[in-house]
Input
Amino acid sequence: MRIETATAPGTPGAPNEDFVAAAMPAGGHGGALVLLDGVTPPPDNGNCVHSVPWFTARLGGHLLELSVSRHDLTLEECLSDAIRVTADAHRGTCDLSHPLTPQATVVAVRWSAAELEHLVLSDSVLLLEDADGKVTAVLDDRIDRLRAAGRRVAPLRNLPGGFYTAAADPAVAGKAVSGRMPLGAVRAVAALSDGAARAVEVFDLDDWASTFALLREHGPESLLARVRAAESADPDGSAAPRGKPFDDATALLLEL
Output
C-alpha cells in the first residue's frame, strides 16, 4: 500500500486552512483518510474566537478517529458525530448561528478487507481509479449547478436549494455525496482540495485522468507545483478568474 500527501498554504507563511490525514488500524485490515478544506472566514471571523485551522484540526481529527474505530457507523454518521462534537467544543464561546462560523468541505474514504466507502461534501474532489485504470471523479456539484443557473452562491450556504459545508449542524452530513463498492473494484484513490484541483477546474490544463497519472508517476508535490506555476503565470486572475489568486492546496494519493 502507498499513501502520499502534500499540502501548502496559498501564501507562504500564512496559516494553511486545509487538513489531511490517513490512518490504518494496528490489525492491518482497512483504514481511512480525511481531507478538509477550511472556508476562509470574514473579517469578524464569523463571531468565533477560534481560527479555521483550529476548526479543521478538531473536525478532521474527530472524523478520522470515528472512521477507524466505529465501523458500526456509516461515514455520514461519523461526520455527523464529528460535527456535533466540534460544535460542542466552542458552542459556549462562539456564535455558531453565523452563516460563516468556521466550516469546511469534506472528503472521507474508509476501506475494509471487503469494501470501500466514500463521502464528499462541497467542492473538494475524490478520484477513484478502478481495476482497469479508469478514473472517475466523485463530485458534489451543487455550487457548479447554482452558478450555471445564474444564482448568487454565497447567500445559499447551508440552506435548502443551496449547497452545504460542515459547520455546526450535524444534519448536513446527510447531504453528502456518498457510496460504497467492493474493494477489488478500486485500485487507487486520490483526494484533492479545490486549490489542488485548479489545474482541471480553473486553468483547464488537465483532466482527471491526467491528474491521476501525474499523482501516481511524480507524487502529490508535483501536482501542487503545477498548480502554483499556473497561478503564478496569471497572478491577477485576468486569464482565469477565481476568488483567490493563490489558494491553499492539498492532495492525497492512496494505492491499495
